[in-house]
Design a protein that fits this description.
By secondary structure, the chain is an alpha+beta fold. The protein folds into three domains: 14-109, Phosphorylase Kinase, domain 1, CATH 3.30.200; 112-183 and 206-397, Transferase(Phosphotransferase), domain 1; 427-475 and 505-685, Alpha-Beta Complex (paralog of FGE (formylglycine-generating enzyme)), CATH 3.90.1580.10. The strands form six sheets. Strands 1, 2, 3, 4, 5, 6 and 12 form a seven-stranded antiparallel beta sheet that branches. Strands 7-8-9-13 form a four-stranded antiparallel beta sheet. Helix 3 runs antiparallel to helix 7, helix 3 (132-150) packs antiparallel against helix 10 and helix 9 (279-288) runs antiparallel to helix 10. The longest helix has 24 residues, at 58-81. The relative contact order is 0.10.
Length: 686
Amino acid sequence: MTMPRDPLHLEGQVVAEKYRIEQAVGEGGFAIVYRAIHTIWNKPVAIKFFHGLAASRLDQRELFMQAFVQEGALLTELSSQTASIVQARDIGTYISPQGHWVPFMVLEWLDGLSLDDVLLREREAGAPPWTVAEMMGVLTPVANALEIAHMRGIAHRDIKPANLFVVGAEPRSGRATIKVLDFGVAKMMADNTQLQAALAKTGASVKSFSPAYGAPEQFSRTYGATGPWTDVFALALVALEMLRGAPILEGDDLVQLAMASSDVKRRPTPRTLGIPVSDAIDQVFAKALAVQPTERYARAGEFLDALVAVTRGPSAYASPDDLSLRATVASVPTPVPIAPPPHVSTGSGAVLVSQTPGPVAASAPAAKSRLGLVLGAGAVIVGAGALAAFFTFGQKSARSAPSAASSQASAPVVPAPPPEPVCPPNTAKIPAGQFFMGSDRKDAQANEKPSHNVKLGAFCMDLYEVTAKDYKACSDVGKCRRASAEVDWPDITRADKKLYASLCTIADPAKGDHPINCIGWEMAATYCKAQDKRLPTEAEWEYMARGPDGRMYPWGDEEPTAGHLNACGAECVAWGKSHGVTLDPLYRADDGYATTAPVGKFPAGNSRFGPFDVVGNVWEWTADWYGEYKPDDADNPTGPTSGEKKVIRGGAFNGSFASWLIPSFRYAQDPKAQSYGIGFRCAKAL
């Protein structure tokens, strides 16, 4: 195999006093990647040198470095919030002997094979298309990884098989780790007009997407802006390519691909491609591949939820006959393990290298002999193994399939057990379990005591606090009372009414994605009922927030910071000062939001089960009347049968006390109170 040239003449040198460059392993028009050894840790890393910027002027370099620092900071922040995103190791600059200024990023080194190479070699070997179960086993972690970015408003914009990396097992097994490549600097620079102008002066350019997986808005902005919905389009194309066994958009040039992407008369759904699926699954793809971005799923998580809902069993296929045929075709022996191809594949800001022949499912020592690396600034890691059983359909082996005559005499087929209940979209499944509810800490409030063991059945909990936009949608169709733009609670003063009414999110169209507030308990309960849900019980809320291990806060035992939640920081104190209110900070840092924040902005504070903003932002109504604990009420407790006040949990954006954030903390509130600091989320029993 011929390795890429070494235009920077770095092989054998030590960069930044700790990275010993071994060899160039991939090159694109904008960057070149080297394999290096971290001399202190003695571990391999990938270093991506952006040599396309080597000709930049002195006055441009600061702008470029600011962009690199911002991107590195973002990736570090994301990786600190979830183990599913790989942190960028380092950034720096290299000055060549010729005086060329070249910024670089240090990234994780990966052993594996791109999905693009997997699909190519399978086609060459005559392997059958993937089943729905096999496809979901690979793309479910991809969608979950994208959702992490989408919740921050970050879009990848170049999802394709070449940017999906398979590590650790045979791809169809459901046990491989899937990593999304290229969330990196190249894409960030392509989206920044100021940087693009500077790049033009250097003669460099950045390719922002791959036309074969492009959404209509990437070909023409007349369809609107790109965003997370753009990734949904591309992810659907990748899924269909796996199910079909061939690429989806067909065309010899950019114009033909653009026409294929935006042709409203022929959408590339499974059925139009000859893949026998149910109406429900075909409709999911039709929505994911809608020409107009506003008609698509807004995020990868929504697309995934819809797919999960319609692919939980054999009904994913059009009929029992189709299922039998599909199972037989899928069981034809596939020529695996597949040796990585001896070539280099270069994508938009990403280079994947496979060199030494060997099976994808090789043992760990063997896998180390292969080369593969992440060249985007952030690779997303999600293990697919846990989802194998979740999406597996029964299949017969073609080699042992009985003849038609023997089939007629065989015993009747035992019907499959009914599928497990599925949680609605944008909810987290909280498994059945038990925990010690309440607290025995010395500094705990009296109403948190005594701690007592509680058992709960499985239930679903909203991932996000109900937003002003969602609540308005309910009231607009008459299912919910119209939210008030006024605050009200017992003994409220006229001054407080005037001051705090401005914080009611329903009154500000710009706060549609902020939690709804200024509504009482009954209005919250009515909304949940309209969604075929209900308010969570105190026990469900606390278990969702802390889990069974007794952790101090939803994220663990680490003290709360501005990165964990929206509480009272420097911004909150400043708001209070400007409005004549004295507020004490929980932390000195600025969390970015003086009052409420859009939901999902603080993933570092997620509960172990996934819900966002469990503490901070707004208090949350629960279903229970306030009362003392009854330790003997240990199974699915629902609190007193009546009372004067309802329980709220979780603290709010103006919270100054860490004790409010401890999941066992309880506060009794008048159910008619309409506070700027109280919202809610819904639950559903399974």
